[in-house]
Amino acid sequence: MRVAGDFNYEALGPGYGAQRRPDPRIAAFIHEALGGARSVLNVGAGTGSYEPDARYVLAVEPSAAMRAGRPRGTAPVINAVAEALPLDHDSVDAAMAVATVHQWPDLLGGLSEMRRVSRGPVVIVAFDGDALDHYWLNDYAPDLIAAEKRRYPPIDRIAAHVGAEPRIVPIPIPLDCSDGIIEAFYGRPERLLDPAVRRAQSSWGFIDSAAESRFVAALSADLASGRWDERHGALRTQKAYEGSLRLIVGEKPDHTTAQTVFHSR
């Protein structure tokens, strides 16, 4: 079976939706960036996380397992890939892609297609691989962090191709984040010992089982001894964590605006 992207969601996708539930505080960043768009294309839509209510949404998702995992009542979904969107030019008010661009074989092709079909903003949520160096997980699973950094395209490269007046905004990750991305458990390390949590994070599919077993043993030992809390315990009450999560937004070019990337804080 041909797999779109670098992770086989057909085999490992079931159960993803239960662990990767949209967090309303992250959603607020995305929905604000969509502005007044009434029609939105969600590319690499997965199970439908972060698709805005009260707007017309059309989803694109190449994985049959992920399409099947979309709850009843979610937006209509098309079996297609980012690099070949089956839509006309300027056919939607906005296009969005959340935690997916690192899966695309042709990043610039996918971004170009999003820009082609959107007559308004292109909104991307992606991960900054360089920021992962500071995450405590690097002490326990360095192979995983290294693999993630290889997968994640540079944020500035994404920003350079989303449209005019591109801007980059860090998205703080809440302590009780309901979207089970790797950094969602910065203050809840025990959760990463749950195999179901790890199965919903494609990151673990890029290291071997021996490295994953070493992670489980090392973190379990440090939690039992109190060593993790000695080093990182303050994170258990830190309300938000500014990690690798980034919002990148570009507007429709008017062919007169200089392509300057703005970093917001």
List the main descriptive attributes of the protein structure presented here.
two-stranded antiparallel ribbon; alpha/beta; about 260 residues; Rossmann fold; single chain; 10 helices; 10 strands; about 15% strand; 8-stranded mixed beta sheet
Q: Explain this structure to me?
A:
This protein has 265 residues and is of the alpha/beta class. It has a single domain, classed as Vaccinia Virus protein VP39 (Rossmann fold). It has 10 helices and 10 strands. It has helices at residues 9-12, 16-19, 24-33, 64-68, 107-117, 142-151, 155-159, 195-199, 209-225, 227-232; strands at 39-43, 56-60, 77-78, 94-98, 122-127, 164-170, 173-174, 240-241, 245-251, 262-263. The strands form 2 sheets. The protein has an 8-stranded mixed sheet, with helices on both faces. The chain has a two-stranded antiparallel sheet with strand order 7-8. Helix 4 (64-68) links the parallel strand 2 (56-60) and strand 3 (77-78). The protein is globular, with a radius of gyration of 18 Å.
